[in-house]
Specification:
Blueprint (H helix, E strand, L loop, with lengths): L1 H10 L4 H14 L15 H13 L5 E5 L7 H14 L4 E5 L12 E5 L2 E6 L1 H5 L2 H6 L6 H12 L11 H11 L1
Parallel strand pairs: 1-2
Antiparallel strand pairs: 3-4
Helix pairs in contact: 1-2, 1-3, 2-3, 3-4
Length: 177
């Protein structure tokens, strides 16, 4: 694992003490320090993704671009990786390309593309309250947002803002009762 993470810094010709730092710190950040000496092919899919991210972090990027990073992960590994991204998003810009709309709920900004063209952008709340447009673009709204819209059709005074997370939905419903 540590050899994989060191690949980029070594190719920059950095001194060995800097390479060591650039291996140790990212592995610590992604929670993979204990796996330094492991063979990468023995890791789970989620662990491999974390090591790949550590390898990118070792290059000290300004941006991190992830294309369907969770598509091959089981639900637990997916949640673990998304929590890692939440921690990392304060350090640099992350472009997270995904078809799983639930993964975009925590984003600062969402872009929706249809056949290679950006059709809309905005905050997750702005985007995911457009249920009909999402369907037109071949996307489903997050389940919580869809549920809230159905409830709001029956109880219009509910939800000034459409909730996107289960906790928000529960809080809104409890405060109404």
């Amino acid at each position: 694992v540590e050899e994989d993470v060191a690949f980029g810094p070594e190719n920059l010709g950095l001194p060995s003490h800097e390479i060591r730092r650039r291996v140790d710190e990212p592995l610590e950040r992604v929670g993979m320090s204990d796996f330094k000496k492991r063979e990468p092919h023995l890791l789970s899919g989620g662990q491999k993704q974390k090591v790949a991210i550590a390898g990118v972090l070792a290059m000290a990027p300004k941006y991190l671009v992830l294309d369907e990073a969770t598509s091959m992960l089981d639900p637990e590994a997916r949640e673990d990786l998304l929590n890692l991204l939440l921690k990392l998003k304060h350090s640099f810009t992350i472009f997270h390309i995904t078809h799983y709309v639930e993964e975009a709920v925590e984003a600062d900004r969402v872009l929706v593309m249809d056949e290679g063209t950006i059709v809309t952008s905005g905050t997750p709340r702005e985007i995911f309250s457009q249920i009909e447009n999402l369907k037109k673009w071949g996307l489903e709204a997050p389940q919580v947002a869809e549920t809230a819209v159905l409830i709001k059709q029956r109880i219009p005074q509910l939800f000034e803002n459409i909730p996107l997370k289960k906790e928000e939905l529960v809080d809104e419903l409890c405060s109404f009762i």
